[in-house]
Amino acid sequence: MEKRVLLAVVLSVMVIIIFNYLYVKFIPSPQPTKISQNQSNNIEIKKEEPLKKEIKPEEIKISQVSSEELKNYILISPQYEVSITSLGARFNKFQLKNYSKEKNKKEPVNLISSPSEGLPLEIYLSSAPEVAVINYRGPEKNIFSLENATSQTISFLGSYKNITLEKTFTFKRNSYFIDLSFRISNQGNEVIKDGILLRGVFSPFVDGTKYVFKGPFYYTDHLNEIKLKKDLEDYTGNLKYLGYEDTYFMVALIPQNMGNATYRATFRNIDKNTQEFILWLPPFELKPNEEITYNFKLYMGPKKIEEMKKEYPLLGKALYFGIFDFIAKPLLYILKFSHRFTGNFGWDIIFITILLRILFFPLNQISYKSMKRMQEIQPIIQKLREKYKDDPQTLNKELMNVYKSYKINPFSGCLPILIQIPIFIAFYKVLLMAIELRHAPFMLWIDDLSAPERLYIGNFHIPYLGGIPLLTILMGASMFVQQKLSPSTTDPFQNRLMLLMPLFFIILFINFPSGLVLYWFVNNILSIIQQYFTLKLLKK
């Protein structure tokens, strides 16, 4: 394969990596998982047009409640610590005990990430947004523990005019899923026609790479990531769940026992880093002394596929690695399987890199042999280009005759690389997004595979970078060696350009997660070894 073809392929790969948000949506056709439903709470929904009234946060006015009347209810489980305020029976803290916000610091990740803009998940009537912040009456006890219990239910009672409201949370010991029910009772003498809305407002829970989507989403028969380019976006139709995610954590709201109801979901930018979603449930009608109960599942935890699938397998689709998700998921499984034996994700990355090189060994052999044979006929090709420089058609015809005479397929060197590109991109996405790599150390100065690596020597400081990106430099050096081993063309410009590629990659990778740099470095080393012995055998 000619070097200009290799250059085009490499640059194409990097364009895909840098601008991954331009991926064409890969639309799967999953079969929605049937979940168990509470038959006693079946709801007959009238197929009416979704409510059109827009509810803004500033419309929700907090009622005059004295501080003495407000209470916080604390629940402690092995996995998280939760605080619920009686004002709206809303979460005002949801800390994940097993995940720290920053490496080597004790502050846990808090999924209530934007409390100044509203507390999730608040529930209110479409005609009365102030219901979101009425003061609920909770149990006498205000501290609960799941250390020695399998589950814990906490109920809150509230009232608004002639309506009684009951919000109930059920927490489970070994799950990030929470059952939420909301019951409305008509205690008056008139029919009530209204609708229920649930609002979530979030900003990223932790710092993460800018190459991964952060924001609200919803799932129909595929995942829809809402990249808000205007103030408000709207969806009406059937959905399975919606929520908010950043690189490593997510909050998902899953409606239950609603059949194939039509929902409305609105999404809005509050500020640069904060977004809001509102789920509009189908309208209801309650006669005097009638009641209606809505059931939901909440998932509040890490984007860890085995946790996400525990109670609702379809939620596993929310961990989406892009267009090559169907390749990335098996690679993630292999990475975690290897970790059972090594206990170190750095060695797991090296193991998968070796595995991929073995898998593609025959294809790479074809590529190296093609490169060598193309080099051998370069003088002939160069003469033909000089001779027919003003006659492209004749030049192409003569080139094809040369390839035919020497039994060379000009595309045989390029094809193996093109076949491997989807796997490389899929593994790249896994290394960027897998929460298993977050804060995971490797060895020596590489103490976090999800962050850029830096080697700090005493007080030596590099502006902007801080320490020395040693692994990234070694990766660039390995690329330089690889280029020197590759058969050169007769075009001096192409040769100089290819030798500049290592510098380009060093600059590109300098702030990439060290796990990705490790993968690329090891891949280069293995490529150098294979290339060296292949070309040596061809000389004999």
From TrEMBL:
Q: Is Iron among this UniProt entry's keywords? A: no
Tell me which residues make up the Membrane insertase YidC/Oxa/ALB C-terminal domain: 345-534
Which CDD domains did the record assign?
Answer: 5TM_YidC_Alb3, EcYidC-like_peri
Regarding the membrane, this protein is recorded as:
Multi-pass membrane protein
To which species is this protein native?
Thermodesulfobacterium geofontis
Output the lineage of the source organism: Bacteria, Pseudomonadati, Thermodesulfobacteriota, Thermodesulfobacteria, Thermodesulfobacteriales
Q: What GO MF terms are annotated?
A: membrane insertase activity
Question: Among the record's GO biological process terms, what is one?
Answer: protein transport
* UniProt cross-references to InterPro entries, sorted A to Z: Membr_insert_YidC, Membr_insert_YidC_N, YidC/ALB3/OXA1/COX18, YidC/Oxa/ALB_C, YidC_ALB_C, YidC_periplasmic_sf
Q: What does this protein do?
A: Required for the insertion and/or proper folding and/or complex formation of integral membrane proteins into the membrane. Involved in integration of membrane proteins that insert both dependently and independently of the Sec translocase complex, as well as at least some lipoproteins. Aids folding of multispanning membrane proteins.
GO CC entries: plasma membrane
Q: Which family does it belong to?
A: Belongs to the OXA1/ALB3/YidC family. Type 1 subfamily.
Which keywords does this chain's UniProt record carry? Answer: Cell membrane, Chaperone, Membrane, Protein transport, Transmembrane, Transmembrane helix, Transport
Question: Does the UniProt entry include the keyword Chaperone?
Answer: yes
- Signal peptide, first to last residue: none
Question: What residues does the Membrane insertase YidC N-terminal domain cover?
Answer: 77-333
Protein name stated in the entry: Membrane protein insertase YidC
This protein's assembly is summarised as: Interacts with the Sec translocase complex via SecD. Specifically interacts with transmembrane segments of nascent integral membrane proteins during membrane integration.
User: Which residues are listed as membrane-spanning?
Assistant: 6-24, 314-333, 345-364, 414-435, 455-481, 493-512
Where does it localize? Cell inner membrane; Cell membrane
